[in-house]
């Protein structure tokens, strides 16, 4: 191999690097950074008004939203609607407002209650005679501030407007 060929070989490798590899790397680095910044923005949006209790962040809002929009509100902040795992969390859920959505629904199959993470309902805190699926159109669940702290869930139409409680577990 002559010196010229060797030189040409080095030049073409350099050209490929400068014209293709380096720009691709920069584009990739840019989008990676944007993704990270976006995650930080979402987290900071979430933690500005957070409550931290027993390993979870909770967030509420004064807005009255449908169940679906409440869920989207939480998902937009890297969380989801509250999943009530214990009597303590049940009592805590009542502190957010008179009537708030929780992350429980039987929209997929009537009478089969599932939390938003897909887990089945094991411990429940229904009002007496609830859930009643009134008029065949009650697939979402609210928690109502009440003296009966462990018997105050009601199923109701998912398009009704209630407060939102988001939960983000660690
Ligand atoms: Ca929980
Ligand atoms: Ca139902
Ligand atoms: Ca009901």
TrEMBL record:
Keywords: Disulfide bond, Lectin, Membrane, Transmembrane, Transmembrane helix. The keyword Ligase does not apply. Coiled coil: none annotated. It comes from the Eukaryota. Residues 52-167 form the C-type lectin domain. One of its GO terms (molecular function) is carbohydrate binding. The keyword Membrane applies. CDD domains: CLECT_DC-SIGN_like (cd03590). This is C-type lectin domain-containing protein. It comes from Neogobius melanostomus (round goby). The lineage of its organism: Eukaryota, Metazoa, Chordata, Craniata, Vertebrata.
């Amino acid at each position: 191999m002559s010196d010229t060929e060797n030189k040409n070989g080095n030049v073409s490798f350099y050209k490929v690097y400068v014209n293709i590899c380096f720009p691709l790397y920069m584009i990739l680095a840019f989008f990676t950074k944007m993704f990270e910044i976006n995650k930080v923005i979402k987290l900071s949006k979430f933690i500005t008004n957070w409550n931290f209790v027993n390993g979870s962040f909770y967030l509420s809002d004064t807005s009255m939203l449908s169940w679906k929009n409440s869920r989207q509100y939480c998902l937009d902040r890297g969380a989801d609607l509250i999943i009530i795992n214990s009597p303590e969390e049940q009592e805590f859920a009542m502190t957010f407002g008179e009537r708030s959505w929780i992350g429980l629904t039987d929209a997929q199959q009537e009478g089969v209650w599932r939390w938003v993470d897909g887990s089945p309902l094991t411990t429940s805190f229904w009002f007496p005679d609830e859930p009643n699926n009134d008029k065949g159109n009650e697939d979402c669940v609210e928690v109502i501030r009440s003296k009966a702290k462990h018997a105050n869930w009601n199923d109701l139409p998912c398009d009704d407007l209630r407060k939102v409680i988001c939960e983000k577990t660690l």
